[in-house]
Amino acid sequence: MTQYFKNVWLGLWTVLVGMKITFRHLWEPNVTVQYPKEQYPIPSNARNRLQLDTTLCNGCNSCARACPVNCITVETMRVVPDDPEQPMIADGSKRKLWVPVYDIDFAKCCFCSLCTTVCPTFAIKHTTEFEYSVYDRNDLFYHFTDMSPEKIKVKQQMLDEYLAKEKAAKEAAAAKKAAEEKAKAEAVSVKVTEEPAQPEETKE
Asked: Would the pTM count as exceeding 0.70?
């Protein structure tokens, strides 16, 4: 019987001790950061979400080749020499390639920073942004190109026309060279046939 009342008292005592601690901390100021209203400062060199500066990207594809998980997709298109919109890179050099597709699958990205290391123009870099959770995995595909579908179509048509003219010019040059060589060979053949035969020497 004594043990029974002792256990009842012990149960009540532990509840009172717990409530004492609860009430003591109830009126004290919070020591935790009230996320998302409050956030700890993120270091500037944090490896969070990647960002591409399209004005610096030259389409060299170094980032895609260096990526160990193949999460970067880059597609390029030649710039036609007589393009009235001859593009320039922000560093002052001429752009030789359009970049109609530059996609990053952040569901696969391991934030290793290899792409930022090999980029010759420093077009891609990490940001401090880390809040981009989504419910649909497809929303983790980020498209960084600044070319509209209409512009891509126009530039592709210009490139096709330029390549067709270039091919025709090469075929014409090859045909002209072949004709010149043929004419030269025929001239040599005619010259050989027109030369008089040498008289044979008589033996004594």
From this structure: no
